[in-house]
């Protein structure tokens, strides 16, 4: 690590209405390093997803710029793949393997259907979905759908995986299992991961750094906290509560406890 892969420079995002201007992102300066897991943490409505969309290229800043490898990001590209919270991001009429092969077909990767199938099976194995390649999305649990979405995103070897609360709708045990899987994928592929979450525990377990955003309407990053706890991490491990308290004190939370 140590090489900046993505840079956000003085990024602002606002929407002008008839009577007032809504500022969603304010003066965001952020460097994301090659190979790290960065968590973007904050309460609902603070601009986390808007920030992720700027990095993805789905949306553009009102001022400032977002750069990858020194080039300004102008549109979505396969170098940056996004996984959403919604379980319905797979094509319902395609099987798991057809969904996984699809990005290879669209981007003309792999010299034959047999090669593409082989690549797809490799990534389905990585996300622990072997044996479910011929299932349709409606036959899968929520956690399995997210695994399939991960395989589909990884199959084209992106540099960056952008994840918008991907485990937010899962039960606690499934979420824990997918967090462990994500760490395995990260170790084996070296992909850079930017993860939006509102879960302090998830941010601490997964990330190398935690960018804490302010409350609704503030639109800025309050602080970036380095997370140097040794891996694998567990709630209650030495140093965990100190990081938790540090993050918690930055969040505008008054009613959760």
Verbal overview:
It is built from seven helices and ten strands. With 257 residues, the protein is of the alpha/beta class. It has two domains: 1-79 and 158-167 and 192-257, P-loop containing nucleotide triphosphate hydrolases (Rossmann fold); 85-157, no CATH class. A six-stranded mixed sheet has the order 6-7-8-3-9-10, sandwiched between helices. Strands 2-1-4-5 form a four-stranded antiparallel sheet, covered by helices on one side. Strand 4 (63-68) and strand 5 (71-72) form a beta hairpin. It is globular. It starts with a strand and ends in a 7-residue tail after the last helix. One of its GO terms (molecular function) is ATP binding. Residues 6-237 form the ABC transporter domain. This is ABC-type nitrate/sulfonate/bicarbonate transport system, ATPase component. Keywords: ATP-binding, Nucleotide-binding, Transport. InterPro entries: AAA+_ATPase (IPR003593), ABC_transporter-like_ATP-bd (IPR003439), ABC_transporter-like_CS (IPR017871), ABC_transporter_ATP-bind (IPR050166), P-loop_NTPase (IPR027417).
């Amino acid at each position: 690590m140590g090489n900046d892969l993505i840079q956000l420079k003085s990024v602002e995002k606002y929407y002008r209405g008839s009577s007032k201007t809504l500022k969603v992102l304010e003066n965001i300066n952020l460097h994301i390093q090659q190979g790290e897991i960065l968590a973007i943490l904050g309460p609902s409505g603070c601009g986390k997803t808007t920030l992720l969309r700027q990095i993805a290229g789905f949306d553009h800043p009102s001022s400032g710029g977002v750069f990858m490898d020194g080039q300004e990001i102008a549109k979505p590209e396969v170098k940056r793949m996004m996984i959403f919270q919604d379980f319905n991001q797979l094509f319902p009429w395609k099987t798991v393997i057809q969904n996984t092969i699809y990005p290879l077909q669209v981007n003309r990767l792999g010299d034959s259907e047999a090669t593409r199938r082989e690549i797809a099976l490799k990534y389905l194995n990585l996300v622990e979905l072997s044996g479910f390649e011929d299932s349709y999305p409606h036959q899968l649990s929520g956690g399995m759908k997210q695994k399939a979405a991960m395989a589909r995103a990884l199959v084209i070897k992106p540099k960056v995986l952008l994840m918008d609360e991907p485990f937010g709708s899962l039960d606690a045990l499934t979420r824990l299992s997918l967090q462990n899987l994500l760490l395995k994928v990260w170790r084996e592929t070296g992909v850079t991961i930017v993860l939006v979450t509102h879960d302090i525990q998830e941010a601490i377990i997964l990330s190398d750094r935690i960018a804490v955003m302010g409350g609704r309407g503030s639109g800025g990053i309050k602080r970036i906290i380095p997370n140097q706890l040794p891996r694998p991490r567990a709630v209650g491990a030495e140093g965990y509560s100190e990081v938790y308290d540090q993050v918690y004190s930055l969040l505008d939370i008054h009613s959760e406890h």
